[in-house]
Write a structure and sequence with these properties.
CATH class of the largest domain: Mainly Alpha
Largest sheet: none
Domain Major facilitator superfamily (MFS) profile: 32-529
Order of helices and strands: HHHHHHHHHHHHHHHHHHHHH
Distance between the termini: 24 Å
Subcellular location: Membrane
GO cellular component, one term: membrane
Membrane topology: Multi-pass membrane protein
Region (Disordered): 1-24
CATH topology of the largest domain: Growth Hormone, Chain: A
CATH architecture of the largest domain: Up-down Bundle
Structural class: mainly alpha
């Protein structure tokens, strides 16, 4: 769903849906909650673990860095494209049919991927897997809001939020374990295995709906324009850092094409008599703010979740399995955090929980700004635990409060808004950490380099100490400095520059968290059901 405002307008799809009430409470709520957890986990885990295992996959396929960079892009861009179309398909064909079809296609694709030795075929199947898994989150989250009893809705939403932290932080452990004990094939086969319980939960919890007649004036062109526009911009963001942004004709073209497609979508939705979705929904009190808050928390999650991995790998040379030992401390407590947050939401104003969540996240990022090259795995645990708790509180509360603004008329747009916002803002987060680290690392490296010269007594003392490690005594003669001593000094500068740039990323994320508190203060009380 791509936001455009139509004053007083309503979509063909939503106006048809509004004639039916929200579904009656699900008689099997716990399989429904498990389906949300598994669907969201499969979607996030697949992308994250593929990124971590990219070197192994490239080696198995015999492709270089540039070709391999498209492996994850093909998956996530396909997810971005299918989101709004999936919501329409679920309305016409039924939630159960679309989810089961997507799950079966995804399971087959993930089973075949490790067996594909041709790179073009591999990319095609990867994109197909992205299209199939792209239906999981928007439809399951929307189904939870429509069908669970009110007292269980926060637990269903907490399951979705819990998945985000668990999937991001357990991926390094899984990738490392597969690489050392099994093979890269299990980066995909584990996803196929997870699809089996997902299918069982869907069969148990999602009722079989009759196929509805397609609205006579469905806005197919509008949905395709919006989905294609966001997909083009997504690809540009994902590949921009590798291709040097506007120096690349491809990136320039994708940014231009994405902008034109979205502009055409906006124009069409403004002038057509039967727009695809009632985007006037965004004019309702709180809704635009809540969309911004979903994007903000997702941005900070994706921005900061990579920092411990980058630091421990580049500064201390740890392998993924060793990095995973630290990140598990964030993933495992989610099993306790998420239900506690859901229980809080039954007794507290969601706006307070959102503010507390952002404040906790800001505190965690504040601890992260104290990052030094001496930090080891254990130093990250306090900030990571606070971050995990705060992000789970904020994301669960935002979506729960958002759900209070969902009526039968707009139930179809809710999941699409969440999906589009989570994917696009998440990509902004991963792009921002890459850009911020590159730019700030260059700045810090240049500034540090100003103090590293042969006229500095500190530099000479350090070179003398490091030369002694190679059995060389300088005696004031800098021409005799071993190459190894110079390499050690160069590495010390690079480590310090990397550390300072990652601390800057924590500062950026802290500013975003404080911005989240400010936006939360603008939220009004939720409408009375």
């Amino acid at each position: 769903m791509n936001p455009t405002i139509i004053p007083g307008g309503s979509s063909t799809l939503d106006s048809t849906a509004s004639r039916a009430p929200l579904q009656s409470p699900n008689s099997r709520p716990f399989p429904a909650i498990a389906a949300v957890l598994l669907g969201a986990m499969i979607s996030t885990l697949t992308s994250r673990i593929t990124s971590l295992g990219l070197a192994d996959i490239r080696g198995a396929l015999g492709v270089g860095f540039d070709e391999g960079a498209w492996i994850n892009t093909a998956f996530t861009a396909s997810q971005m494209f299918i989101g709004p179309i999936a919501v329409w398909a679920a309305f016409v064909l039924g939630t159960r049919r679309v989810l089961l079809t997507g799950a079966v296609i995804f399971m087959v694709a993930e089973t075949l991927l490790p067996l594909s030795t041709n790179f073009a075929c591999f990319i095609f199947i990867q994109a197909l897997a992205g299209l199939a898994s792209g239906v999981f989150v928007p439809i399951t989250v929307g189904f939870i809001v429509r069908s669970l009893p009110p007292t269980l809705i926060p637990f269903g939403i907490a399951a979705y939020a819990m998945n985000l932290e668990m999937s991001l932080n357990i991926s390094a452990t899984l990738e490392g374990w597969y690489s050392e004990h099994l093979s890269w094939h299990w980066l995909f086969w584990q996803n196929a295995a997870l699809t089996i319980p997902f299918i069982l939960c869907l069969i148990m919890s999602v009722p079989n709906e009759a196929i509805r007649q397609t609205p006579a004036r469905s806005d197919y062109a509008g949905m395709l324009l919006g989905a294609s526009g966001f997909a083009c911009l997504f690809v540009a963001l994902d590949q921009g850092e590798r291709l040097f942004w506007l120096q690349s004709l491809f990136i320039t073209g994708m940014l231009y094409l994405g902008t034109v497609l979205l502009a055409a979508f906006v124009l069409r939705e403004l002038v057509t008599e039967a727009p695809g979705i009632a985007l006037s929904y965004l004019l309702k009190p709180n809704v635009a703010l809540l969309v911004m808050l979903v994007g903000l928390i997702r941005f900070t999650v994706l921005n900061t979740s990579f920092i411990p991995s980058i630091f421990l790998a580049s500064v201390h040379g740890l392998r993924p399995l060793e990095v995973g030992d630290t990140l598990r401390w964030v993933a495992v407590p989610q099993i306790l955090f998420a239900p506690c947050v859901a229980f809080m939401l039954l007794h507290l104003d969601a706006r307070r929980v959102i503010a507390i969540g952002f404040a906790t996240v800001a505190l965690a990022f504040g601890l992260g700004t104290q990052l030094t090259p001496d930090w080891a795995e254990g130093n990250f645990i306090p900030s990571q635990l606070l971050q995990a708790l705060g992000q789970t509180m904020a994301l669960t509360s935002i979506i729960y409060f958002f759900a209070k603004h969902v009526t039968a008329e707009h139930a179809l747009t809710f999941g699409a808004v969440v999906q589009t916002t989570r994917l696009f803002s998440g990509q902004l987060g991963t792009t921002s950490i890459a850009v911020t680290q590159r730019v700030m690392e260059q700045i810090h490296s240049n500034l540090l380099g100003l103090h590293v010269n042969l006229f500095s007594s500190e530099t000479l003392e350090r070179l003398a100490a490091q030369s002694s490690l190679f059995g060389t005594t300088l005696n004031g003669n800098t021409a005799e400095v071993p190459a190894g001593a110079i390499a050690l000094l160069d590495r010390a500068v690079r480590v310090q520059a990397t550390t300072l740039s990652l601390a800057d990323n924590y500062r950026l994320a802290a500013a975003c968290a404080l911005g989240g508190i400010a936006l939360t203060l603008l939220l009004r009380r939720a409408p009375t059901p």
